[in-house]
Write a structure and sequence with these properties.
Shape: elongated
Low-confidence stretches: 288-295
Strand order of the largest sheet: 5-4-3-6-7-9-8
Number of helices: 11
Distance between the termini: 62 Å
CATH superfamily of the largest domain: Vaccinia Virus protein VP39
Number of strands: 9
Bound molecules: S-adenosylmethionine
Helix content: 40-55%
Radius of gyration: 21 Å
CATH topology of the largest domain: Rossmann fold
Number of domains: 2
Structural class: alpha/beta
Length: 295
């Protein structure tokens, strides 16, 4: 049997030869997955002979070499420090979406009532389940994840049971048509890519979780009036966009929320990525004051 180091080296070379940028890391993750160990243990075992048949490992390395994402091969992706189950029925959550979790969690932490928060287009449940896990089991907020895809919701249900049991309601429906409101918070990472933004790295994810009509903004154009009808005074809405949509997204948010504070925020790479809307509470002027205090 080869040693762990030799198996890793051979797999890394195979992945590098097929153009995988993260060849060494991917080989490590796949070897750990098949061996049922973490990376610290892998490093400890590097000089030792592999003590199980390597066929399953080589099979995964080959699929990775053909372009399949590591997350679909292992069945997991880390998001907000939590391990989410993902399948080809769900988008693989991206690190930039963690902003929406931090944004919503910060607002919900200020609340001691049963604030109603909806994650529209929840996919594997990443955003709303991370919010629930971060707030903990005793926070009174009512947390809902919705999606039009039943297949995605089945995965979300699995993640809910593993990561935030009993804390999140899951609903199958289009946008917010299933809900009369009023709502305190809405977050959304709906599909926003244009078809011409397709590249081979996206080939394995469900197209209906990636692409949207009308220059990629068509789904948000439908969601915005529905949020506007349901969001309470003092409530907030945050959504993730493609940087190319920044101007249009801000203009649309201002049109549907003429009395709200609309802010465009960058991702960690400095690209405009999030639009937040904070509707003023007439009785307290709360949302506006918070925005002014941030400058
Ligand atoms: C980009 S994925 C995001 C998944 C997850 N929120 C995340 O950030 O990883 C978008 C999700 O929106 C769902 N979706 C698309 N159109 C929808 C609609 N009209 N109503 C509800 N969900 C929708 C898709 O099924 C998909 O699961």
């Amino acid at each position: 049997m080869p040693t762990y180091r030799e198996a890793l080296r051979a797999a890394t070379e195979r992945l590098r030869a097929s153009g995988v940028d993260t060849a060494r890391l991917d080989a490590e993750v796949l070897l750990c997955h098949v061996a049922g160990i973490d990376r610290a243990e892998l490093y400890r075992r590097l000089p030792e002979p592999v003590d199980f048949p390597l066929a399953a490992f080589w099979h995964l390395v080959e699929r990775r070499a053909q372009g399949e994402p590591v997350a679909y091969l292992t069945g997991y992706r880390e998001f907000y420090g939590l391990d989410f189950v993902v399948t080809p029925a769900t988008l693989i959550p991206r690190p930039e979406t963690e902003f929406l979790v931090a944004w919503a969690t910060a607002r919900l932490r200020e609340r001691t009532d049963r604030a109603r928060c909806v994650d529209v287009g929840t996919g594997c449940g990443a955003i709303v389940i991370a919010i629930a896990a971060t707030l903990g089991p005793d926070h009174p907020a009512l947390l809902v994840g919705s999606d039009r895809s039943l297949a995605a919701l089945r995965v979300a249900r699995l993640n809910r049971e593993r990561l935030a049991p009993g804390r999140v309601h899951l609903v199958c429906g289009e946008f917010l048509a299933w809900c009369r409101g009023p709502l305190d918070l809405v977050v959304a990472n709906l599909p926003y890519l244009r078809p011409e933004q397709w590249h081979p790295g996206l080939a394995y994810e469900p197209p209906e979780a990636l692409f949207a009509p009308d220059d990629g903004f068509g789904l948000y154009a439908q969601l915005l009036p529905q949020v506007s009808e349901r969001l309470r005074p003092g409530g907030g809405f945050a959504f993730e966009i493609d940087p190319s949509q920044a101007e249009r997204a801000v203009a649309a948010a201002r049109r549907f929320f003429p009395d709200a504070a609309v802010t465009l925020l960058p991702d960690l790479a400095g690209r405009p990525r999030y639009v937040t809307v904070e509707r003023e509470d007439e009785t307290t002027g709360r949302a506006t004051r918070r925005r002014r205090s941030l400058g």
